[in-house]
Amino acid sequence: MDKPFIYDYTLEELQTWAKENDEPAFRGGQIFDWLYVKRVDSFEQMSNLSKELRQKLEDQFQFVTLNEIAKYESKDGTVKFLFGLQDDHAIETVIMKHNYGNSVCVTTQVGCRVGCTFCASTLGGLKRDLTAGEIVAQVVQAQKILDERNERVSSIVIMGTGEPFENYEATMKFLRLMIHEKGLNIGQRHITVSTSGIVPNIYKFADENTQINLAISIHAPNDALRSKLMPVNRRFPFADVMDALRYYLAKTGRRITFEYALIGGVNDRPEHAEELAEVIKDMLCHVNLIPVNHVPERNYVRTPRNDIFEFQRILEGKGINATIRREQGHDIAAACGQLRAKHMESNAR
């Protein structure tokens, strides 16, 4: 059996491991510091640990290796990576530069089974879940790259390939590792997790008592249209998703972001905006309008610019806060799953 990833272990688990290996608990804290503050690449570099302890670590754990298959840099500063994992699967990670700092978009699964019809991530289905450590490694890798510029990861969005709430335990462990004050210490309010509406885990997340932001991919104002665009809606119908979100709001008091991908002639008409406003009018929320990226494998087209502004105007006229997502990495196929889809296609030839 392969050795577990060291990034899969929390500080407390490393302290327990140290004690089980006849070492004082504080050694676990030193290991954690080497991983997240000094960001070393090997156990050998952990110079304040004995040679014997470093050998134990070497024998029992492994680092997550993310082999850079491809790297694309956009004119707007967005950098997208296609990383190879140990088992020859590939994942995507994106660093986005904003005026408020650097954001990293991470992937939680290899592929996705949710099946949104406008998304390249679902092409080829779900291959496997990532471990918490494989998600962690994406942020650590991004931070190492930013270290060269004396910058830091200031926010994280869990909006890469996969459905985080179908890999719930690993996602939550990843989040706890990211916010730990002795690690990367990312502020909870600077992290957003996005779900397509896995109802049981929206309830679960509401009960976690965190300050982490929740975004929901809605993409339609009713059951019939949402089921066409998002097959997951047949498992978790629109009304059930809304009930879960109302529970989340009542429990946390935290604003929800609705993500709405505008698809030309499909879900972007004024009547769709009117209906959406009616559905969410009593909720503490914000709507993020996303002009859909053209995916060659799908037949959808982008909503004309004037129609996007009209959709926003209707929502705001009904008292709904709505913004249009600033496009990043448009020149480097930065939409989720596009690089991986190309990679899979070239490997199949």
TrEMBL record:
<comment type="function">
    <text>Specifically methylates position 2 of adenine 2503 in 23S rRNA and position 2 of adenine 37 in tRNAs.</text>
</comment>
<feature type="binding site">
    <location>
        <position position="116"/>
    </location>
    <ligand>
        <name>[4Fe-4S] cluster</name>
    </ligand>
</feature>
<dbReference type="GO" id="GO:0070475">
    <property type="term" value="P:rRNA base methylation"/>
</dbReference>
<feature type="binding site">
    <location>
        <position position="293"/>
    </location>
    <ligand>
        <name>S-adenosyl-L-methionine</name>
    </ligand>
</feature>
<dbReference type="InterPro" id="IPR058240">
    <property type="entry name" value="rSAM_sf"/>
</dbReference>
<feature type="binding site">
    <location>
        <begin position="217"/>
        <end position="219"/>
    </location>
    <ligand>
        <name>S-adenosyl-L-methionine</name>
    </ligand>
</feature>
<feature type="active site" description="S-methylcysteine intermediate">
    <location>
        <position position="336"/>
    </location>
</feature>
<dbReference type="InterPro" id="IPR040072">
    <property type="entry name" value="Methyltransferase_A"/>
</dbReference>
<keyword id="KW-0004">4Fe-4S</keyword>
<dbReference type="GO" id="GO:0002935">
    <property type="term" value="F:tRNA (adenine(37)-C2)-methyltransferase activity"/>
</dbReference>
<keyword id="KW-0479">Metal-binding</keyword>
<keyword id="KW-0949">S-adenosyl-L-methionine</keyword>
<dbReference type="InterPro" id="IPR007197">
    <property type="entry name" value="rSAM"/>
</dbReference>
<feature type="active site" description="Proton acceptor">
    <location>
        <position position="92"/>
    </location>
</feature>
<dbReference type="InterPro" id="IPR004383">
    <property type="entry name" value="rRNA_lsu_MTrfase_RlmN/Cfr"/>
</dbReference>
<dbReference type="GO" id="GO:0019843">
    <property type="term" value="F:rRNA binding"/>
</dbReference>
<dbReference type="GO" id="GO:0000049">
    <property type="term" value="F:tRNA binding"/>
</dbReference>
<keyword id="KW-0411">Iron-sulfur</keyword>
<keyword id="KW-0819">tRNA processing</keyword>
<dbReference type="Pfam" id="PF04055">
    <property type="entry name" value="Radical_SAM"/>
</dbReference>
<feature type="binding site">
    <location>
        <position position="119"/>
    </location>
    <ligand>
        <name>[4Fe-4S] cluster</name>
    </ligand>
</feature>
<keyword id="KW-0698">rRNA processing</keyword>
<keyword id="KW-0963">Cytoplasm</keyword>
<dbReference type="InterPro" id="IPR013785">
    <property type="entry name" value="Aldolase_TIM"/>
</dbReference>
<feature type="binding site">
    <location>
        <position position="112"/>
    </location>
    <ligand>
        <name>[4Fe-4S] cluster</name>
    </ligand>
</feature>
<dbReference type="InterPro" id="IPR027492">
    <property type="entry name" value="RNA_MTrfase_RlmN"/>
</dbReference>
<feature type="binding site">
    <location>
        <begin position="162"/>
        <end position="163"/>
    </location>
    <ligand>
        <name>S-adenosyl-L-methionine</name>
    </ligand>
</feature>
<keyword id="KW-0408">Iron</keyword>
<feature type="binding site">
    <location>
        <position position="194"/>
    </location>
    <ligand>
        <name>S-adenosyl-L-methionine</name>
    </ligand>
</feature>
<dbReference type="GO" id="GO:0051539">
    <property type="term" value="F:4 iron, 4 sulfur cluster binding"/>
</dbReference>
<keyword id="KW-0489">Methyltransferase</keyword>
<dbReference type="InterPro" id="IPR048641">
    <property type="entry name" value="RlmN_N"/>
</dbReference>
<dbReference type="GO" id="GO:0005737">
    <property type="term" value="C:cytoplasm"/>
</dbReference>
<comment type="similarity">
    <text>Belongs to the radical SAM superfamily. RlmN family.</text>
</comment>
<protein>
    <recommendedName>
        <fullName>Probable dual-specificity RNA methyltransferase RlmN</fullName>
        <ecNumber>2.1.1.192</ecNumber>
    </recommendedName>
</protein>
<dbReference type="GO" id="GO:0070040">
    <property type="term" value="F:rRNA (adenine(2503)-C2-)-methyltransferase activity"/>
</dbReference>
<feature type="domain" description="Radical SAM core">
    <location>
        <begin position="98"/>
        <end position="331"/>
    </location>
</feature>
<keyword id="KW-0808">Transferase</keyword>
<dbReference type="GO" id="GO:0046872">
    <property type="term" value="F:metal ion binding"/>
</dbReference>
<dbReference type="GO" id="GO:0030488">
    <property type="term" value="P:tRNA methylation"/>
</dbReference>
<keyword id="KW-1015">Disulfide bond</keyword>
<dbReference type="Pfam" id="PF21016">
    <property type="entry name" value="RlmN_N"/>
</dbReference>
